[in-house]
Every structure is written in C-alpha cells, then in structure tokens.
Design brief:
Glutamine Phosphoribosylpyrophosphate, subunit 1, domain 1, about 650 residues, 3 domains, alpha+beta
Length: about 650
C-alpha cells in the first residue's frame, strides 16, 4: 500500500500547463508529493499522501514495457496475496506498493481485475498501445471520481474543482441536480451540478477510446430472497469473522492510526475490536455540541473502558464560520450541518494520526436508521389495513404530537410542527409495496412540492421541466436518477424480504453520494485517510444475506451487531438507544455569525443573481425558521449552502 491521494487527468487535446493546474487543485488530498505522466494525447496527475511504502510507491507508475501507466487513490487491503500470485507468474516489481499490484493485475486480466481487489479505490490506467483510458471506482463508492466528456477531450479527477481548471469550456448549470439537492440535501448522481459534469457510479468502470466513453457495472449488492438456513449462533460467528478480518486489514499502516468514537454502538465496536488487535492505546476522537443529546460522556466512558488515548472536540454555534471552507472541500452542496463537526474532527485528528477508522455503513447494511423502521411499520400497516381504511387514518394523523411524529419518522430533538404532520400524511399515502422507492425518497427528503411551488421562479420551473423534471409531485419526480429503478432487473424482487429491498435502495445514491462523499471530502480536506470497516465488500455481502430479524428485531435495530458487541463491551454500551450524530442547528441560528452568514447569502441581491428562487419566498422561509420549527431551519441551512456552492463553483470556478 502507499497512500490516500488525489488523481486527475485527461485524454485528448488540452492546453499546456493544464495538468499541473489540475493536480495543484488536489494538493490538500496529497501534500507529500506530485507526479505526472504525458504521452499520446493523454495526461495523468497525482498528489500523494504516504501511508505504506512511504519511501516508494511514487505515481504515476508504469509496467515493465511502459505500455500501461496508472494512478490510484485508495488502498487495496489484499495486495500482498495478489502480489505473491503475480510474482509467481513472472511479473517484476519495482516497489512495495499496492498500486503496482493493480497495474500488473490489469495487465493480466484487464477490467476483470476489479473482481480480485478488496479495498477502496478510484483508479485510472492509460493504455498506450490501444490509446485507451480505463477508470474504475470501488464497489461501495468510498472514493469519489468525477469526469467531463467535452468536445475533443475527456477529463477526470477526484474532485471536480480540478476539472474546472480547464478554462476552455463554460459550465452550464444542471437544473435537475439543483432540484434533487433541495429535495435530498445531496446530489444523487450520476449527474453533477453542471450538465457537463458526471460522477462515475460506485461499482462501475469506464473505458474511453476512439472519442467514446462506455460504462460497465462490475458488482451489484445482493437482493437476497433466502433461504435463511443457518442458526442465529452460526450467523453471529460468521459476522464476527468477517468484521474482525475487516478491522484487522484496515489497521495496517506505516503511519499513526486512530478512530472516530461517538457514544454510539458502531464506532464503539470498531474501537473495541481495534483495542484487541494492538498493544498500544487506540487514539480516539469525538465531538460534542453541548446540548441534551450530546454523546461526549458516553464516548469518554467507552474510551476510558478500552484504555484509549482520547481527544474531545467542541463544536459551537460560532463554528458556522467554517462552513465556506467545508463547502469548498465538498465540491458539491451538502445541506447537512454535520459537515462542520466532521471538518473539525479531521482537522484535530490530523495533529496526531494520518489514518482514521470510521463507523459509516453499519446503519445502511444492518437497518440502523429510524426511516428503516418507519418503512417497515408502514409496510406492516399496508398488509393489515385496506387502502380505504388507511385513508381514514389521515385525519387522526393530523392530530399527532410532535413527539409521536418523531417516533414514526425521524428522531430529531426539535418540534416538527404542522409541516412535519403533513409529511406523515403524505407517507401514509405511500404504503403499497410497489411504492417503496417513492416512500423511501419521501422519508429522506427535505423540500417537497409544497415548498417548491412558491419557492422556484417561473424561469427555473421552465428549465426544470425542460430537462425532464417535474415540480408538481409532492413525493417523487420522474427521472430521479436511478432510485426508481434501483432494485435489480431480472430478480423476483417481490419475494425478497421487505427490509432487504429497503436496504438495497441505499447503494446507488444515499451511501456513495452522501454518507461516504462527506466522509471522504471532510477527511481529505486535512489529508486524513478515512477507512470504513463496516463497508468491506465481503462483510457487506454477508450482511445482505442475513435474515431480516438479525437486523431489526422487535423494533430494535442492528440486532446482530448488538449481540456481537456484547462480547467486547458492557451491557450499558450495547443497549444504548441510537441517537443521530446531530448538530443542534436550530439552537445556533440566533448566533451573530449565523445571522450574518444568512443575511449575506440569502440577501435579495444574492437570490436575484442566481435567478432560481423567489426572494419573497426565501424571506418567508427565514421568518418561519425564526419560529423554531425544525424543518424550516434545515431548509434555510440548505439554501445557505447552495449559495456558498455557487460562489465557490460558479463565481470563483473552484478556487479556494
């Protein structure tokens, strides 16, 4: 192994100096060194963060006869086993890096080499003999990869700000991406915020040759229908074996390794497993917000129990001033205030470690979110209650208390109010099995038709309708990426357990383009390599074949993880109710810094400049936010982030 990095490049005709400019835009991802390859109308650029084979492993790297050149961002955890097989077949190695293993494996097997790799990666290989560019992204999408197919040239990069260094094109805003962002608080892909910009989907590779790019999927998460033949103890042993192997592999490094530790189950189990695999105290990092659901005390208790070298980071209202920096590093708008403490955690962790293990993925593969349980509850209601009777439930739903609504949909420590009640009513209309994609999207959405009908300008509505979008539906828009088609074709999806179908929907968008994208961008902003043991693809495949009752049982999430955690942690740690890793932004908006940021970004001048939103509607939303209704606080925050993104990506064209 070698590094976490930034990669970029092109194939086609470009101006002199562009490769250096693109690579420099990624210097924060790899502060240790830079490398370049040029030949036959192609260029590859690389910024390196050394992790293993610190003295070697420079990139780009070429094979024995110079016919192939590779750059890679990521880690291949099984590279040593693969290297031994390649040596036995006569390959010669100049380094100890996993990058060279990928190169020789591709030399032997072409794109099929991806089936052999266990790791997190974004790969680019230029084939001189065939004048072909090969790009690939890991199965779960831990590492990002963007591209733009422009007249006469094809450009790619770990972050799209590097692609914006090509000044010979004028980016055109993608109205559909803006609409999806406001609905979901992230950009689902494969489209990007500009029409010319695309995201290589997770588990895909691309071949670019003869002026044409083709995409191919090489891995698909399993939508398993059964049979579930093993005993609970056998499933538990299998889970333990897969998880411990994953943690063991991902702890390998020549530089200091640590872990993020909240008071929750996922990170606590990772740290407990790490503690068993090392004789040194594990370095742990946690963030607190000074409100009633703060998990600092739980995290400190776990750290003390496991003998960790523990660091606490405070996130306060004044830290909203970090938001412009976070948006710059995100590349895409993400309307979730959690990016601020993620940015702070990585900044603090960099003072002591270079590699971090994080708990992302456990909720996605084991049914850990509130909306998983809400969808299951809705499915049960649909099975036992005819549609006509369910219609009678809509009126009583309007009288539900905010706390009841929280239990049904989302667990946030704030009142959802009338807007939240209407959201529940919409959900009760979407309970038929064939409506699962719409119900799923509805539960994770923020802005809906009630909001956008008055919010959007007529010009923006026309642009959105012109690109295939619709603004008239409160729940789902035709053409919304592939969510409506995310269940695999050719399989008997109606026979798969409903929970499996719910979890399957997360792999195309939610996981790679929101959860993992935030972790990658916020950690790499400070040259920290984030690894995610729960998303080892072999562990994921195993988890997807577990019986639903091993995930959610009697309304309690992640049953098998709680049972496994009982081997490592006291009962008080394993039985804690899941709390969201949540920034109390509704308590922050009265801070002068927040008010100043809001007044600047959502001023009438700023809104009119973009031509997307009606200033009077934005002003109305800001007034509603001041009444303390939580959904409006989130909406205002998302609009602030959108304007900050415009200033970074459009006004400054990706400059810091």
């Amino acid at each position: 192994m070698k590094k976490m990095c930034g990669i970029c490049g092109y194939i086609g005709v470009v101006e002199d100096g562009l490769l250096e400019s693109m690579t420099a835009a990624l210097s924060h991802r790899g502060p240790d060194s830079a490398g370049y390859f040029r030949g036959d109308g192609a260029g590859l650029g690389h910024r390196r963060l050394s992790v293993i084979d610190v003295e070697g492993g420079q990139q780009p790297i070429e094979n024995e006869d110079g016919s192939l050149a590779l750059i890679c961002n990521g880690e291949i955890y099984n590279y040593q086993t693969l290297r031994e097989g390649l040596l036995a077949r006569g390959h010669r190695f100049r380094t100890k890096s996993d990058s060279e293993v990928i190169l020789h494996l591709y030399e032997d097997q072409g794109p099929d080499c991806l089936q052999r790799l266990n790791g997190i990666f974004a790969i680019a290989i230029y084939d001189r003999n065939n004048r072909r560019l090969f790009l690939a992204r890991d199965r779960l999408g831990v590492k990002p990869l963007y591209y733009a197919d422009l007249p006469g040239r094809f450009l790619f990069a770990s972050e799209f700000k590097a692609i914006l260094r090509d000044r010979n094109w004028t980016p055109a805003l993608n109205p559909r991406a803006v609409h999806d962002y406001l609905a979901l608080r992230y950009v689902p892909g494969p489209d990007g915020m500009f029409k010319e910009l695309r995201k290589l989907p997770a588990a895909h590779y691309a071949l670019i040759e003869g002026g044409r790019a083709t995409l191919h999927r090489y891995w698909q998460p399993d939508l398993f229908s059964g049979p579930f033949a093993a005993s609970e103890e056998e499933y538990l042993e299998g889970f333990a074996d897969h998880f411990e192997r994953s943690v063991r592999m991902q702890m390998v490094s020549e530089v200091p390794v640590g872990a993020y530790l909240s008071g929750g189950l996922d990170s606590s189990v990772i740290v407990a497993a790490m503690s068993r695999l090392t004789s040194k105290p594990v370095r742990t990092f946690t963030v607190g917000f000074d409100y009633e659901h703060d998990e600092l005390s739980e995290a400190a208790e776990t750290a003390k129990l496991l003998g960790c070298n523990h660091t606490e980071v405070a996130c306060r209202a004044s830290d909203v001033e970090l938001l412009p920096d976070a948006v710059y590093h995100l590349d895409e708008p993400v309307g979730d205030a959690i990016v601020i403490p993620m940015f702070q955690l990585a900044r603090e962790a960099k003072k002591r470690v270079t590699v971090i293990l994080a708990g992302e993925g456990a909720d996605e593969i084991l049914g850990g979110y509130i909306f998983h349980r809400a969808l299951l509850a809705g499915h049960l209601l649909a099975r036992v209650t005819p549609r006509a009777i369910r219609s009678g439930l809509l009126a009583p739903a309007l009288s539900l208390t905010p706390s009841s609504l929280i239990n049904l949909a989302f667990s946030y420590p704030a009142a959802l109010g009338e807007r939240g009640k209407l959201k529940v009513v919409d959900f009760l209309r979407l309970l038929e099995p064939e409506q699962l994609p719409e119900a799923y999207r509805h539960l994770i959405s923020l802005f809906d038709e009630r909001d956008t009908a008055d919010l959007y300008t007529d010009d923006f509505k026309a642009a959105l309708n012109g690109c295939g979008g619709r603004v008239s539906s409160p729940t789902v828009r035709e053409g919304f990426g592939s969510i409506a088609h995310a269940l695999p074709h050719g399989q008997a999806t109606d026979t798969a357990p409903y929970l499996n179908r719910i979890l399957h929907l997360q792999f195309d968008h939610w996981l790679p383009e929101d959860i993992l994208m935030k972790q990658d961008k916020m950690s790499m902003a400070h040259a920290i390599e984030a690894r995610v043991p729960f998303l080892d693809h072999e562990l994921v495949e195993y988890a997807l074949r577990l019986p639903p009752a091993m995930k959610i049982r009697a309304g309690i999430s992640k049953h098998i993880l709680r049972r496994y955690a009982g081997r490592l942690l006291p009962k008080r740690s394993t039985s804690r109710r899941k709390m969201p890793f949540y920034v109390p932004i509704e308590q922050y908006f009265s801070d002068p810094r927040f008010q100043e940021l809001m007044a600047d970004t959502l001023s009438e001048k700023s809104i009119l400049k973009r031509g997307l939103l009606r200033p009077e509607a934005v002003l109305k939303l800001c007034r509603a936010m001041r009444r303390g209704e939580f959904v409006f606080v989130k909406q205002v925050f998302s609009l602030i982030v959108l304007e900050l993104w415009f200033r970074m990506a459009v006004d400054r064209r990706g400059a810091a």
